[in-house]
User: Fold this.
Amino acid sequence: MRIQGRRVLIAGSASDICDPERLAYAHLLVCELTRYLALEGATFVVLVSGEPRLSPEKGGHALTFDWHILDELHKMVLAKRLNVPSSAKLITTVTTTRTEGQVPGDRRTLWDDLKKRELIAVLPGEWNWTSGAIRRSLLASQADILITLGGGEGVEHYGSLFAARSKPVIPLDLEIGASSKDGNGGSLRILQRVRSEPRLFFPHSDPESINALLQSFATRQGQSDPREVAKCIVSFLQRIEPPI
Assistant:
């Protein structure tokens, strides 16, 4: 599958009691993945909301990844490492009546500059509809590829939305919990389903090759080099058959 022009949604979160070192690894992995995919010509679908964090005593790492994705893309644009086609936006998001008030204070400059540079396609949700499920449905409709790590019910909901549309889902095995402390395992639950029912997520690819390729980007709970994991995910996407 050609990555150029595909819209990628990286979804997930971590528990506030997860291992701080493993969470730091998750952020490194998300940043590497964002870079590699962006250089291949992908664009991104991102949920803009608050940014809960671990306590300062535990390192203060964010429990979600969306703002790190936006920050990494912004850095690449400033460094002129990306050529964003005029016909497409680098970032797509869905706003609600609460969005502007949820932007963290230390992310306000980033958010305003992304909008000023016209890098964001902002899709309005229905007036006063702030349900997470509604926002996820709108975001999923805009994305071509889903990559998950950690998370709970929200990540599992994304997985079902993409599977229903036969869109590829890449679940990572990193155990970091969920910020909402709900669901049945989030990304790990999706990974179990992909392994047992690969045709549900990759209907046009060989099931045996899918299970073999899934092993190529195992994180080994933070022991694998995040750059190599990101490269293997990009290679995986390039080798699977595109959705029809």
